[in-house]
Amino acid sequence: QVLLVESGGGLVQAGGSLRLSCAASVRSISSYSMGWFRQAPGKEREFVAAIPWNGGNSAYADSVKDRFTISRDNAKNTVYLRMNSLKPEDTAVYYCAAVYRAFVRRTPAGYDYWGQGTQVTVSS
């Protein structure tokens, strides 16, 4: 069982930045591919970014490419999502997800473990 806890959400003005963190309660996240998803009210959960367990290339949704950066610190069992140039349409609950030794996946069904989410609100 993997417990994921997100933090770092909040209220920010358009154009601002936030860094989300996802702390995992396992011996090591080095064997897990990690993803970030988001869900706005009335919408389906959508892919944001993912980073593979084996050091390969990360993946991003087109809507966040060049603005968001996913990274991981295996020594701290933590994954980060740096969000720059935030827009009101980025407002959502952001979720961290994990899957054991899998290629990068862009659908929620591809992940086995989920956090409770952290709210990000971008004001115009």
User: What is the number of strand segments?
Assistant: 11
Poorly predicted runs:
none
What structural class results from the helix and strand content?
Answer: mainly beta
Span between N and C termini? 40 Å
Radius of gyration: 13 Å
Number of helices: 0
Structure description:
With 124 residues, the chain is mostly beta strands. Helix content is 0%, strand content 48%. The protein has strands spanning 4-7, 10-13, 18-24, 32-39, 46-51, 59-60, 68-73, 78-83, 92-100, 113-114, 118-123. Strands 2, 4, 5, 6, 9, 10 and 11 form a 7-stranded mixed sheet that branches. A hairpin with a 4-residue loop joins strand 7 and strand 8 (78-83). The model has no long low-confidence stretch (mean pLDDT 96).
Supply database-style keywords:
124 residues; mainly beta; 7-stranded mixed β-sheet; 4-stranded antiparallel β-sheet; 11 strands; 0% helix; 48% strand; globular
What would a concise description of this structure say?
The protein has no helices and eleven strands. It is mainly beta and 124 residues long. Strands 2, 4, 5, 6, 9, 10 and 11 form a seven-stranded mixed beta sheet that branches. Strands 1-3-8-7 form a four-stranded antiparallel beta sheet, with no helix packed on it.
